[in-house]
Every structure is written in C-alpha cells, then in structure tokens.
Write a structure and sequence with these properties.
7 helices; DNA-binding; four-stranded antiparallel sheet; alpha+beta
Length: about 260
DNA sequence: TGTGATGTTGAATG
DNA sequence: GCATTCAACATCAC
C-alpha cells in the first residue's frame, strides 16, 4: 500500500530494524526482484555490511551502507518489510531477506513482484538517471508552480508523474482533488493560478498529515475521501454521488456533481 | 471464471 | 528532447 506516507512508515520501521546490525548473509528467493544484478552478486555485495542511514524520496527508500553504497527498496504495489526472528515466521511471499548477525531477519515480502530492489554504488547518479522528481513534502510552492506551468495533462496525471514530484499515488491524488472540489481530469493548465496553488498546499497538507499518522490509519479524519474510495454509488450528503472512471490510466473515484470539469 | 489492484517502465505517438 | 498515453509486468482476492 505504498505511497509517500506509507513508505515513510516503512522507513521508520526499517531504521528500527536494520540500523547498526551487521548483515551475516542475504537469502534471495527470487532473483527477479533484484533489478540490476543477479541474486548471488547482490547477496555477496551486502554480506558483512551494516546499514547506517536511510533516505526516502517519494516512494523510493534507500538504505545506506557503511561503505557509502545504497540499496533501493521500492515497494511497487504490494511490497512490505517484516522484521522477525524465527525462520518459520517468514512472510508468505518473501522475495529476499537480510539475516543479521544476531539471527534477526528483515524480509521483503511482495506477492505481485512489482517491487524493485537495486544495489547502488552512486545514489545521486541513479536519481538523475531515472529523473526522479523532488520529494512531494520537500518541494516548494514556487518550484511546484514552475513545474505545472503549461502542463496539459490532467491534474491527477500531473500529480502522479514521479518525474515532476515524487510520492503522490493514486489514492492521495484522488483525496487531494476531492478535498478541493476539483475534477481529477481537469487539464492542469485550465486550473486558475489560485487553484494550482491550492492543489500544492492541500497535497502537502494531506501527505504530511498522513505521514505523521501512519501506520495508524485510524488517525485519518472522518471527512477524508479515504473512507469512501471505492464506494461507488454512495450518496455524499450535500455533494453528490461517488463514481468511478479512468484518469491517467488509473482507477479514479470522484463525486459527481461536486467535482465538475470546467466547460 | 473473470476482473481489477495504493506502481513503474519502455515503446509509441504527438 | 519533451509531454503524454498505454500495455506489460505477476499474483491474489473477491
């Protein structure tokens, strides 16, 4: 379930679990999850290393080794990490696991295998190579305004493009549009400047709040769209009906009659 | 049984 | 080169 707030929660969990523990070995169950080398090479590279830091940018989490190298953990749609001791507690779809000297394990669980793990000797070069945008919570309003200028794509498509800003995913994009009463398919350049600024502020407010709450979803305000997502046909009092459509290639929920496309 | 799922990539198009 | 769209990836749950 990994958008920026979720990955931020993973980062906290990762730090707690992995920092300052020497890796005794790495067991790779599925070579394909490691994207830039084979499993054995990855395992050898990690052996006897220690995680001493971590860096999150959008949905990308980078663990930093004591030799300055990094391991990218990208969770895809279904990635998760689990810290455990007994080998029989291995998550069902574990693709690889760090085994620490004290016997504890940090496993990467990922049923759909959309996760991506890379061993990186040059973090900055990698970020440049994939043109990853600035983190959505770090980005300034001025920079956001420069990015959105002239963009014809839907506001949702713009927010989802990780090359512009990193971290907004499908559900939080819909959440932002709902709270601002903006139709997610509205072309970005048809929003007024005030609306564009409002999108930026609301997006940061939502992402920042969610990141603080997680992993406890119960802390989300009851008036968030979160609880209504997928509730197609539901009437929202004083607003309209929840409907589903495709925007930017993704399943999109919005409230018909409340979020209206400009004519 | 078929459908779709909180993401990214690479090819294709403009 | 940039902006944008879209199928493909692999598995599971409803």
């Amino acid at each position: 379930m990994p958008e920026l707030p979720e990955v931020n929660a993973y980062k906290v969990y990762f730090n707690e679990a992995a920092f300052n523990q020497k890796i005794e070995r790495v067991i790779v169950h599925d070579d394909k999850i490691i994207r830039n080398m084979d499993g054995n090479t990855f395992a050898e590279a990690c052996k006897n290393r220690t995680f001493v830091g971590s860096y999150r940018r959008g949905k990308y989490l980078f663990g930093e080794f004591d030799n300055g190298d990094h391991v990218l953990l990208h969770f895809g749609m279904t990635g998760d990490i689990k810290y455990y001791s007994a080998p029989e507690d291995k998550p069902k779809h574990e693709r690889f696991v760090f085994v620490f000297e004290n016997g504890m394990r940090l496993g990467f669980d990922d049923p759909r295998k959309f996760g991506r793990i890379l061993y990186l000797t040059d973090l900055q070069a990698y970020i440049k190579e994939i043109k990853l945008g600035e983190d959505a919570l770090v980005l300034s309003e001025d920079a956001f305004m420069r990015l959105i200028k002239g963009k014809k794509a839907s506001i949702k498509g713009f927010l989802l493009n990780q090359k512009f800003l990193a971290g907004v995913g499908n559900l939080y994009a819909d959440e932002t549009c709902y709270q601002l009463q903006i139709h997610p398919a509205t072309p970005s350049n048809q929003l007024t400047e005030e609306q564009q600024r409002a999108v930026f502020r609301k997006m940061q407010e939502i992402m920042g709040f969610a990141a603080e709450q997680l992993p406890n979803y119960k802390g989300y305000p009851p008036n968030w769209f979160w609880n209504l997502w997928r509730e197609v046909g539901k009437e929202i009092e004083g607003k309209g009906t929840v409907v589903s459509c495709k925007v930017a290639g993704r399943t999109t929920m919005f409230v018909e009659g409340w979020q209206v496309l400009p004519t």
